[in-house]
DNA sequence: ACCTGAACACCGTTCAAGT
DNA sequence: ACCTGAACACCGTTCAAGT
């Protein structure tokens, strides 16, 4: 691993932590694996972060910092479409981040800046503060939840889908879950299907609904 | 703890695991804390579950089993409204379950039965299979994502909100996050506000959108 | 059949010591 | 200032032994 012996820093620690979580899941991210990745002893990490909890908060915030911000001066719908697509892509690449979200209550600066830009875009577009709260809750619920589904449903990748459909169909008594079987064999497993394509469809529906509130 | 010395069973192990995760978060759920709760030695657990991973899969499925199923014969919109409200309440009580969702790909029988009932309700209502997939993705993304937001955003409980607003306002340079500050002081922190109330508003918007696809 | 004691290879973190 | 060795109280899990 080239360049790993640059001087340690909070930044490098967090970046390495993201890399480990991406590669093997959150379960493989330990202070010791992180130290190994950085070619350092575990205790050295504590000079740059207070503890593992701060690392978890830090990598969530780092991931939020990768999401494109909406420009408050552009067309609100176009800007929120672009940032939502970016959010889904970024969070989809680091799905453990959404998993971590439910257990932390200390949003970092990048996360706050992100939310501030979304709220600001809605306010600038003319949404009153109560409708802005509605829109914020609806839009970001959709984005987070889609990432959860995409990570959890085994309807991705060509192999994964077939795998689980197999489990559904023969792991249990035949005839259970008839509608899931129909959905799988009649739609999801057909060549052109990609669950990820559902995102844009739902996103447009959500933005339509929000746009309707403005009139 | 009365009745804890009933004979061990997979059922009792999973129930105790849920209780521990509810009380102290997933981080406090260990094979050893679980054994202690059940008044048994850690190794006894392995006679009822293969390993901790199976416990995690098991408690997610247990929680899904608590959600009201829609009846495929009722009015689809009413049924999905009822089951979505139930899902939000149940998952909101056990928020770690949604966090776990992103890292598992082995849905259990209760989870599959749940999804089957939702898909069946949509099919019975006359949605073709492709629109059923759209509706399923949109609706459940919204439900999961709302639970994530409600757990993550510190906009709940009277104290929590004030806490974080404090952090937002003085922890960082003043004037950062102006829109979040406006949203907090001008809306979210006002006496009658409860973020949870946003759920029904967004749910109706989502169901409106889905209903529109049927015509 | 069900439970357990002892052991192994791990964790996060502290503390005192090195450069 | 930054890094580290040794140690502590924990983990999940295996294996051989008990009833």
From TrEMBL, chains A, B:
Q: What Pfam families does this protein's entry cite?
A: TetR_C_1, TetR_N
Q: Does the keyword Transport apply?
A: no
Q: Indicate the residues that the entry says bind DNA.
A: 30-49
Sorted alphabetically, the keyword list is: DNA-binding, Transcription, Transcription regulation
| All copies of domain HTH tetR-type, residue ranges | 7-67
Tell me which stretches of the chain form a coiled coil. none
Extract the InterPro entries matched here: Homeodomain-like_sf, HTH-type_TetR-like_transc_reg, HTH_TetR, Repressor_TetR_C, Tet_transcr_reg_TetR-rel_C_sf
Q: What is this protein called?
A: AcrR family transcriptional regulator
